[in-house]
Amino acid sequence: MRRRPLHMSGEALDALRSALVELRTELKILSAFPRRVLKAADTAAAHPDLAHEDATHLPFFTIDPSTSKDLDQAMHLERRSGGGFRVYYAIADVAAFVRPGSPLDMEARDRVETLYFPDLKVPLHPPVLSEDAASLLPYKDRPALLWQHDLDADGNVTASTVTRAMICSRAKLSYQGVQQDIENGTAEESVALLREIGKLRENVEITRGGISVHLPNQEVALHEGSFRLSYAATLPVEGWNEQISLLTGMAAAQIMIDSGTGILRTQKEQDDPHVVRRLHGIAKCLGIAWDPGVSYAALVRTLDPKNRRHMAFLTEATTTMPKAEYTVFRDHRTPEHTMHAAIAAPYAHCTAPLRRLVDRYTGALCVAACADEDPPKWVLDALHCLPCDMARGKGGAADRQTVDLAEAAVLMHRVGEEFDAAVIDTDAEWNRPHNGKVYLADPAVLAKVTSTSGRDLCLGASVRARLERAAPSSDVDKVLFTVP
């Protein structure tokens, strides 16, 4: 569900533009590429390593936001003659362009990931690669890491392998377009199979105890010279597409575990008794039945984020999950903990090498393992540094602070007004909470709130919240509401 976007006044636009520039300065964002890196990118684009088999006969397609040019993934789906399905999943082969120790490699190690601002994208690699030579653009032969997953009739993976191959996408599709074509019955068979396979994989996720939480996303977009702040709920096709990426990440993790060298994305279970009791208390406070013996994952699947009480619980619960991290291992010294708790399986980042540093390394490890070759030396040399490299990523901070700035700009001329809101988060002392967070449907704002009367904030409650502060330049809370 999309809500009406809120446009900003001229003064608010100027304030937000200035605040975004200050934010990038504060975060020390590397915007322009050095000349030596641009020169190296031009050379790499003209002379890639193309030791690939030919798979250009497969009619791949990509699904991305309509304006995207950095296309990491392409897929082709088909039924197997003996039953079940075959998923071909092509991942941009960035290693065909980025030589170890080159200026491109060193620059990517500094940048870690692509950063997205409403007025600017700061890419991991120069655009001549990320938006052209290495991107899986339609009707262009491109080097890729080609995954082949065989699935049975229930969607369970029976075999996975990956090799380097040249591929050629036949179509650049958007999420909205694919969703409409599938619903209308006009999608080509390979595209239409995404719904069937995606739903089967969602059932597999339920069986293994995985968790998918799709809270409404706040979006800040630049459109026709104006910033817009809105909520955007996830389309079903985005979930089905995510399942293809997830099964590839799980396959990559298992391949690396079996080969004895790799880097996993791990997350531990929440086993703190105090936190578990608190979650049960929150559910009870919100009137959500959580029967004994029902797991957190099973409960989450029964909740609807459009219900404000359910949204309040999910918002609280997602903040209590242990932080995911990167876990390195080699020489068959498999770490004690290999699982990602939310996914309920071993998992690795490997499907976005144009936008995330670590994926280039996991891809190379999996290709080597499937070819029964030793891990590449350049991967082994960098492996132990990758967790620290990835920890330097600024994407999370940039996203959060950009939304904070946009909220303040939208509301800067409305201080003193009251808004209909719902309390979706409270401070740690859930039984005596005076501070928390409110959800406004219009404008699309999630902001801090405090009780001025000393009365408790009640999770899930509808309130009239007064706007006390909205200042993009504030060093403290940029937006603050109070409830009497």
Query: Stretches where pLDDT falls below 50 for ≥5 residues?
Result: 1-6
Strand count: 19
Computed CA radius of gyration, to the nearest angstrom = 24 Å
- How many helices does DSSP assign? 14
Question: What is the average per-residue confidence, as pLDDT, rounded to a whole number?
Answer: 90
Q: Biggest sheet, strands in spatial order?
A: 2-8-7-4-3
Helix/strand-derived class? alpha+beta
Strand content: 25-35%
Please summarize what this structure is.
The chain is an alpha+beta fold and 484 residues long. 35% of the residues lie in helices and 26% in strands.
Question: Can you walk me through this structure?
Answer:
The chain is an alpha+beta fold and 484 residues long. It is built from 14 helices and 19 strands. A hairpin with a 4-residue loop joins strand 16 and strand 17. The longest helix has 24 residues, at 236-259.
Give the key terms.
35% helix, 26% strand, single chain, globular, disordered N terminus, 5-stranded mixed β-barrel
Topology (elements, then pairings):
Blueprint: E1 6-7, H1 10-26, H2 35-46, E2 53-64, E3 73-79, E4 85-92, H3 103-111, E5 115-117, E6 120-122, H4 127-133, E7 141-151, E8 157-174, H5 175-184, H6 189-208, E9 217-223, E10 226-232, H7 236-259, E11 262-266, H8 273-285, H9 296-300, H10 308-318, E12 325-329, E13 339-340, E14 345-346, H11 358-370, H12 377-383, H13 386-391, H14 395-411, E15 418-426, E16 435-440, E17 445-451, E18 462-470, E19 479-483
Parallel strand pairs: 2-8, 17-19
Antiparallel strand pairs: 1-10, 3-4, 4-7, 5-6, 7-8, 9-10, 11-12, 13-14, 15-16, 15-18, 16-17, 18-19
